[in-house]
Amino acid sequence: MGPKYSSSRENYLKAIFHLQEIHGTVTTNHVAGELQTRPASVTDMLKKLKAQKLLLYEKYKGFKLNTEGRKVALQIIRKHRLWEFFLVEKLHFRWDEVHEIAEELEHISSKKLIDRLDEFLGFPKTDPHGDPIPDSQGRWTLTHQVDLLNLPVNLVAEVSGIGDQSAEILELLNHKHIALGTRLEVKKKFAFDNSLEIKIRNQSVTISEHVAKNVFVKYDE
Amino acid sequence: MGPKYSSSRENYLKAIFHLQEIHGTVTTNHVAGELQTRPASVTDMLKKLKAQKLLLYEKYKGFKLNTEGRKVALQIIRKHRLWEFFLVEKLHFRWDEVHEIAEELEHISSKKLIDRLDEFLGFPKTDPHGDPIPDSQGRWTLTHQVDLLNLPVNLVAEVSGIGDQSAEILELLNHKHIALGTRLEVKKKFAFDNSLEIKIRNQSVTISEHVAKNVFVKYDE
DNA sequence: TTAATTTTTTAGATTTGTCTAAAATTTATT
DNA sequence: AATAAATTTTAGACAAATCTAAAAAATTAA
Ligand SMILES: [Mn+2]
Ligand SMILES: [Mn+2]
Ligand SMILES: [Mn+2]
Ligand SMILES: [Mn+2]
């Protein structure tokens, strides 16, 4: 048997899942923006996902995944993140190169494949961007993290996640040698533009509010 | 950019490539049989592949790939066989489990991915069924092998390839402990039904003509 | 509370890949 | 060579996913 849902449907499920994590409920325009498609196409797909009993949807009223839809979405996210981990750890890709490839690999249907891959990789808990990898039952361990704007000054912390994951921000972070696991300290906050001066391996680095908002760290206590 | 050709088109190219290796030129029914589809669907696709300049085709006259079509087909075969190797060597799948999964993985488009995978695997020359893996330029080294029916008696040889690769024959070979690299010797040929008695690790095993025809070996001299 | 604006849905097309049934062509048989 | 059988192609249909333009509904502003 082939895949249970088409790649397109899987992409919709994943996008809706992510959007409802942020906004609680999801709108047609949200999804169209996320998937670079037209609102009319989204509406078409909503009907299909509802007919397949993956989605709670009444027209003009917004929508969200039901239990089954969430379950399916989590398995796709699991595949996406395990493949990203594989690409970085085993094939030595950079973290800003893996997303697009994983966008394709996440649609490979074999469950056995993904469980074997998980084992081969040593059951990693997070992907190369610090995002948690659901286990084969769709569970994940959530880590409590704060963004850099909310990190108290003079407190050593470790980078544990990235919000916006566009190639642009990843390139900037690469340049400033900020990666997952990097230890750093906020030395100064400028009230004028909310920019920060941080210390990384004894080097002083300045980052904008926009960047700071998208870098998450964890620290003791 | 996404894939250059759809999965469907890639499957046709691969099927035509294999069939023309055997028969020189290919017919509509051949392809329909190979791809489990209808002759009318094949004709439809032939027109598209011709329009894309991958195929030499005039109606009612048979067809074959042109240089470009062959090039594309070889890259898909490369991907298929590298993924099969990965599945067996790294994820410990059996050789009779990998074909279907590789049928999906072969359509992942990233060229960089497949070249990195090749490197990660140590540039293997053959897949788990003994078939050669084309390099990134589409070249492969052909090995001269004979099937078991044509192996002289009392001559130690090594299994190097399998003809028919259905799950059924692979299961039979597994059961009789015949795998790639197995060393064996034909001890007796029965003229009555062309069955063979062969010696594997000092054990005597009998195989039918049908099996013998599909087991290829190489030997010195 | 109307009116204007934005969002969402519908109606109708288009593209890709597939199918069945019928027609055209080639191949095999008498 | 004529006929029968097999193969291949065409004609016309359908499902999936997408789009544009227009209509409907909801939201915001006056
Ligand atoms: Mn995807
Ligand atoms: Mn990621
Ligand atoms: Mn395939
Ligand atoms: Mn193989």
Query: How far apart are the termini of chain A?
Result: 50 Å
Q: Structural class of the secondary structure composition of chain A? A: alpha+beta
Q: Shape of chain A from CA axes?
A: globular
Low-confidence runs of chain A: none
β-strand amount of chain A: 15-25%
Oligomer: homodimer
Number of helices of chain A: 8
> Which strands sit side by side, in order, in the main sheet of chain A?
3-8-4-5-6-7
CATH class of the domain at 146-218 in chain A: Mainly Beta
CATH superfamily of the domain at 146-218 in chain A: Ferrous iron transport protein A (FeoA)
Largest interface, with Cβ-Cβ < 8 Å? Answer: A-B, 18 and 18 residues
What is the share of helical residues of chain A? 40-55%
Keywords (chains A, B): Activator, Cytoplasm, DNA-binding, Manganese, Repressor, Transcription, Transcription regulation
Organism (chains A, B): Niastella yeongjuensis
Family (chains A, B): Belongs to the DtxR/MntR family.
Main location (chains A, B): cytoplasm
